Amino acid sequence: MIAKLFEVKETKNRGKGLFAIESIPKGTIVCFECNNCRTVSASELGYDNMSEKEKMALLDYAYRKKDGTFVLPCDETRYMNHSCNANILTADAGFDIVVRDIKKGEEATYDYRDFYEDIKILCCCGEENCCKVVDFKHPIPTELKQFWTMRINVALKLVNTVNQPLKEELKQKSIFLSLGDTLLDKLYVDE
Description:
By secondary structure, the chain is α+β, with helices and mostly antiparallel strands. The protein has helices at residues 42-45, 52-59, 142-156, 167-173, 184-187, and strands at 6-10, 16-20, 29-32, 38-40, 63-64, 70-72, 81-82, 88-90, 95-98, 107-110, 121-122, 133-134.
């Protein structure tokens, strides 16, 4: 489930993308896998028999998790393009969080190197730190993991200071933050 903070629009060079309809501050939880997202096994998809072209096409609609299953998002999440300097990352606690303020009209991006694919894709993010080829190495290189962890930890510290558009949905799902075993609803300070 993705927060209603984005719209799908054409990008300059990457097909469709997700764009912010308002400014979204760092620390905003914008997405999580909900019960409407479909999870399927590689065998159900016939993944091992797919050509590289078919695997590339699948990446437009799904992403692969560490356990080898594929998640087919139930919403516009699938339009989130890759960037080596992504403004949204996974917090390894069941949700994705904004790690860099997103301006109104700016494209929402995610670092695909977090996925578990066995293909390579050309990177056309144009960022200064562009990797040129997204190759989904696992374990994730130490320097990259440290970069993500630093950005995620800073964003997590802001969770209680910014409006959380998915607050009620996250509470219902009992999603935990990686800050110990504290329930997300206990992190909110209701006034």
